[in-house]
Amino acid sequence: MGTLFERAWSEVVKPLLRRPPRVQVAALCYRRTDDGKQVLMITSRDTGRWILPKGWPMEGYDAPGTAMQEAWEEAGVKTGRIDRRPLGRFTYVKQGEDGMNQVCEVDVFPMEVQDMTSDFPEQTERRLKWVAPKEAANMVDEPELRDILAAF
């Protein structure tokens, strides 16, 4: 009887209780140098781990527009040219304020940075660092994001 219950739990009940993935967008901010491309990495506010500027969809913005807005708020990117098509998608688990884990799927839009400022909304909450794409890949925890950065 235990086996039947365990099977019903794992194959029927548990999948019904899972929340569907939430979608976010990220800006893979980059610049060209004599040594090649550099990627802008920022720290998260909660854990201080290295990430890309990213966030939830915003009313009044399409996905690339939201990614550009996040790059401004989180990293001080004033202007840039963003690709309208995502470069890729990665998945991560975000812990909500309620303590529940939520799977997030993030579409990554490459954005060539044209102008930045040191005066931006989250300047006191984050650190910024320009690095080569391969180094950026080694800085992140998410395997799919690591692959996107390494290929960039």
Overall pLDDT: 91
Rg on CA atoms, Å:
18 Å
Number of domains: 1
SS-derived structural category:
alpha+beta
The count of DSSP E runs of length 2 or more, i.e. the number of strands, is 8
Share of helix, binned: 25-40%
The CATH homologous superfamily: Nucleoside Triphosphate Pyrophosphohydrolase
Count of helical stretches: 4
What is the correct CATH architecture? Alpha-Beta Complex
CATH topology: Nucleoside Triphosphate Pyrophosphohydrolase
Strand and helix order: HEEEEHEEEEHH
Distance between the termini: 52 Å
Q: What is the 3D shape?
A: elongated
The major β-sheet equals: 8 strands, mixed
Low-confidence segments, ≥5 residues, pLDDT <50?
A: none
The CATH class is Alpha Beta
Beta-strand fraction estimate:
35-45%
Could you give the topology of this structure?
Blueprint: H1 2-17, E1 22-33, E2 36-43, E3 50-51, E4 54-55, H2 63-75, E5 77-82, E6 88-95, E7 101-116, E8 128-131, H3 133-139, H4 143-151
Parallel strand pairs: 1-7
Antiparallel strand pairs: 1-2, 1-4, 2-3, 2-8, 5-7, 6-7
Helix pairs in contact: 3-4
What would you say this structure looks like, in words?
With 152 residues, this protein is α+β, with helices and mostly antiparallel strands. It has a single domain (21-151), classed as Nucleoside Triphosphate Pyrophosphohydrolase (Alpha-Beta Complex), CATH 3.90.79.10. Helix content is 30%, strand content 38%. It has helices at residues 2-17, 63-75, 133-139, 143-151, and strands spanning 22-33, 36-43, 50-51, 54-55, 77-82, 88-95, 101-116, 128-131. Strands 1, 2, 3, 4, 5, 6, 7 and 8 form an eight-stranded mixed β-sheet that branches. A hairpin with a 2-residue loop joins strand 1 and strand 2 (36-43). The longest helix is centred in the first third of the chain and has 16 residues, at 2-17. The radius of gyration is 18 Å and the shape is elongated. The relative contact order is 0.23. The mean pLDDT is 91.
